[in-house]
Design goal:
The protein is mainly alpha-helical and 104 residues long. It has 2 domains: 56 residues, no CATH class; 47 residues, no CATH class. It is built from 4 helices and no strands. It is rod-shaped. It starts with 6 loop residues before the first helix and ends with a helix. The protein binds zinc ion (ZN). Zinc ion (ZN) binds next to loops.
């Protein structure tokens, strides 16, 4: 079975197997169907969030070093301003893309 079946698809599959399974096995398969349905829903939500993060700017106005953007002077801080929100949302986006690709 592929991993991304809906709950109804899992329930249909379960009915075809139910006669040959013990109640413990049936419960395990039912639990698995629930988990896969939740996984499918969470993947949908991640894809939505990916779209939002991909098309919107996420900024905090604070550098990774903790200084506010207006007071950040590269010459004194020793590095260029890197917005913490932009950095972390970029990291999140990359990890999310890998997780979504990895799970297919
Ligand atoms: Zn800084």
């Amino acid at each position: 079975m592929k991993l991304h079946h809906t709950r109804d698809e899992w329930a249909k599959w379960l009915r075809t197997k139910d006669a040959s399974l013990s109640s413990f096995e049936s419960q395990a398969v039912e639990d698995l169907a629930t988990l896969f349905a939740e996984n499918t829903r969470l993947r949908e939500l991640l894809r939505s969030a990916e779209g939002i993060f991909n098309n919107c700017n996420v900024t905090t106005g604070y550098c990774m070093c903790g200084d506010i953007e207006d007071g950040h002077v590269s010459m004194f801080c020793g590095h260029s301003f890197v917005d913490a929100g932009a950095y972390h949302s970029s990291q999140w986006l990359n990890e999310t893309r890998q997780a979504l690709i990895g799970g297919q």
